[in-house]
Amino acid sequence: MKNLFLIGILLMAFISPSFCQQITIFDREGAAKAYIDYDEDATIFLWNGKPTAFLEREGSDLCVFGFNGEFLGWYEDGIIYDEDGYIVGAREGAVNMITQIEPIKSIQEITPIKPITSITPIQPIWKSSCSSTSLVEFLYQGKY
After folding, report:
1. DSSP labels for 64-91?
2. Fewer beta carbons within 10 Å, N or C terminal of the chain?
3. Claim: this prediction has a pTM higher than 0.90
4. Domain ranges within the chain, ordered by starting residue
């Protein structure tokens, strides 16, 4: 009976992470560079485990803010847009791109306290082309 209990505990330890709500965000080359962790209040982590931004609802918009409180962009239909409406990253299937195999993620660092956020600008018209700013560079703008 003890063996069954131990096996159950071990299975839960390995299975429970699969229930985490995490959405991988791919850059314009299709490489997994970041992910949104909904178990951590919609925090955006880089693949190396650094928390750099978070999602916050502003009216009907889902906005991306850095942990420095600065507005970075929008998240809509699985796509992250910059302030000018250009695509900086997307989840698999949200845009027409071939994605690469996801490498193993690093352990998450401690998430900082969410700051008071800046005013959200007026939403631009979405563009179907990618921003000249890389996804990682875009997210590092919000580093605390």
Report:
1. EEETTS-EEEEEETTEEEETTS-EEEE-
2. N
3. no
4. 21-140
